[in-house]
Amino acid sequence: MSKTTTDTSPAGRAPDGADDQELGAAGSQLSTAPQEDAPQLPSLGVVGWARWFWRQLTSMRVALLLLLLLSLGAIPGSLIPQTGIDATKVEDFRQRHETLAPIYDKLGLFHVYSSVWFSAIYILLFVSLIGCIVPRTWQFVGQLRGLPPKAPKRLTRLPAYTTWRTEAEPEQVREAALALLKKRRFRAHTAGDAVAAEKGYLREVGNLAFHIALIVMLIAFAWGQLFKFEGNKLILEGDGFSNTLTQYDDQKSGTLFSPDDLEPFSFVLKDFKGTYEATGPNRGTPRTYEADVTYSVGAYGEEKKTTVKVNEPLKIDGSKVYLVSHGYAPVLTVRDGRGNVVMDREAVALLPLDANVTSSGAVKVMDGYRNAEGKKEQLGFNAFFLPTYGGKGSTMLSRFPALINPMLALSAYHGDLGVDSGIPQSVYQLDKKNLKEFKDSDGKLFKKQLAIGQTMTLPDGAGSVTFEGVKEWAGFQITRQPASGWALAGAVAAIFGLAGSLFIQRRRVWVRAVRGADGVTVVEMAGLGRSESAKVPEELGDLAGILYERAPGAPEPDPAAPSGPPDTPEPAAVPAERAEKK
């Protein structure tokens, strides 16, 4: 009976003697991975050590180690506040950890991704991957240009093997085998008395594509970090924005970014609409945030209308305009002690504190105000706004994020706001160092709750504040991230390349057909894979079954007759069906 056998020995192990060398050559070059030679000390001298260091750096082992170090190095960047992301949190961390902060400064942990040690790992990984991939790519190109190696002398030593006798001519068997293997998409050719075939080159293509994709991702990441730009802008309904550095509330950019790289465009926020869940367990959860804007590109560009939604940015050349936040801005009119208007229906943006948009901020009257005595002063108000007030006696927290029952609470101060000192200060906070409190009749801080249309009259004829209405504002983030498309393409290619290298097996098949001593053709088939797998004997059995149909078996030989040609194993009996697997 015919047989397909599997050998438990490794596929690349060669038996003793000359046949072992030939089998080793047949199993060679199933991949482009560099061979691990026995360790040898480099020759003395600079050149020898440089060569040894280069071989170590460009080994796959070192590349994987550097990739692991890069992943570990990114962990502090996620756990520790970063100056490039939130400088305020970094300063807060310094104040709370006076001992730990100097250590973090020396280690560069407040700016991990631009630190010397992270950059060193990044560059070494980049060099290692290139030094590893380039020679492997050229080696693989050479394999594609060559032909599968000829069959070993003793096919019985291969992991998967089958044989039978047939009355067909050896040339006919080899022609049938060649046609069959090519039909199964093997690269096949006739070499001597056997057909050599190979399949599964996409495994190595996937392997190389995965590593090349990593290089593309590293380049794209570096390019994006060097030339990136990100800025934020809070815009009231009816106000506009022009894409220049002076227009941003805050911004950060890469090392090689230039203001000339900003795309020339502008837009105006016409209207903001937000809808929320009115009932159920998700009451108050935003359903839609939409900002209607008109924009134009260039100094004389045509105005166009569009709607910016969450995760649906406005794309202008290389920039994207994202809608990232929303809030309210009470509209106030302030009069001085003589009744003169010093702030005429001006909207003051407040920052949300919770999901129901309970908001706080500061109102600053910097110019034109005179107190009851006619003396120039400045006014400051701490403002607390609730879009949906629960009514008298309820907590000072909004019940719902929409404007249902708006209420504004103000506490009043007068004096010097400190805006002329030259020291930057937040527009959302009062610097009370040189401010005095307005006092009520009980000698406490003067404050009042206002509904729309109500007025707060300041003590001692100091003036008044009228709550005229509410505008909405939208927060936009304008980003410029070059090479992001390359990074995405690299990530997709890496996934497909890794899948190909894991699920495609590179294997070889040989079919030998020679005439035996009794004149009957002996057919031998053997297969070899890069690693031990049940797929090789299964595929060999399938091929042997088809070839057996085209070259059917011959009767059993006479036991007294010679067993066959020299160095050929004794042929097995004719298979009654497709080759069995063992």
TrEMBL record:
Domain ResB-like: 60-540
Signal peptide: none
The keyword Transmembrane is assigned to this record: yes
Domain of life: Bacteria
Chief localisation class: membrane
Classification via InterPro entries: Cyt_c_bgen_Ccs1/CcsB/ResB, ResB-like_domain
UniProt-recorded name of the protein: Cytochrome C biogenesis protein
TM annotation in the entry: 62-80, 116-135, 208-227, 486-504
Pfam annotation, one family: ResB
Region spans: Disordered: 1-37, 549-582
Compartmental location: Membrane
Bilayer topology annotation: Multi-pass membrane protein
Swiss-Prot/TrEMBL keywords: Cytochrome c-type biogenesis, Membrane, Transmembrane, Transmembrane helix
GO biological process, one term: cytochrome complex assembly
Biased composition (Pro residues): 554-569
GO CC terms in record: membrane
